[in-house]
Amino acid sequence: MKLLGLDIGSRSIKWVLYEKSSNSILDKGILDSTPYNLERIEENIPSFDQISLTGYGRHNLNDILKPRSPKIISEITCHAKGARFIEPEQYYLLDIGGQDTKFIVLDKSGKIIDFKLNDRCSAGTGRYIENMARILDVEIQEFIDIAVKSNKPSNINSMCTVFAESEIISLIHSRERTEDIAAGVIKSLILRTKALIGTNKTDENILLLGGLSELQNIEVLFERFDLRIKKNALSRYTGALGAALALLD
């Protein structure tokens, strides 16, 4: 039986096709979260026996796929299931998405025992980095590469993305080094992330999920600011994978 899980985020749609008999991933893919792709989703996904939906836009896609009787599953449950499948010994999960940041703690059986969410301001999300990279007129990977070169990250104090943008423009006009500004942006995001994690252990590696996990050298910057993370080749797909696995329940 082929089980298809879709994770509909604010920036992208991830899908994973899982086969029950072989307990393996048959295929995976990613699309931009555009109205065009949502309306024509069945043209861009493989054939399946059962389907499940999770993520920010799961209810929107549910209307489109209603004839296929999709199962709706929470993001937290899906990320936990997907992460446990790819990293069985991993207990701390961090998903910095386009709309929010989620921190999940699992016990040894994979059960969720703690969960924290920051969805109040985009200054703690992946979109924050995208917006700041746009101001510096670079792609997001180049933004990370530039930040790694910094020895003196700029201080960015604004807790709001709009004010942070103004602060960065001011730093540019003050001839602050580009690499220091970029590193300051990453530092501010990591400090917000550490505040979200709070009293939970941060001396162990945390599995980074979502699109940021595909950026080279992102782990170098996290460790520079005292937050150890690890990545997996399937980190971006844990939500979709977990959605597929949830169909086994």
Automatic annotation (TrEMBL):
InterPro entries: ATPase_BadF, ATPase_NBD, CoA_E_activase_dom, Dehydratase_Activator_Redct. Pfam families: BcrAD_BadFG. Residues 4-245 form the ATPase BadF/BadG/BcrA/BcrD type domain. GO terms for molecular function: iron-sulfur cluster binding; metal ion binding. The keyword Metal-binding applies. Keywords: Iron, Iron-sulfur, Metal-binding. Its cofactor is [4Fe-4S] cluster. This is CoA activase. It comes from Thermodesulfobium narugense.
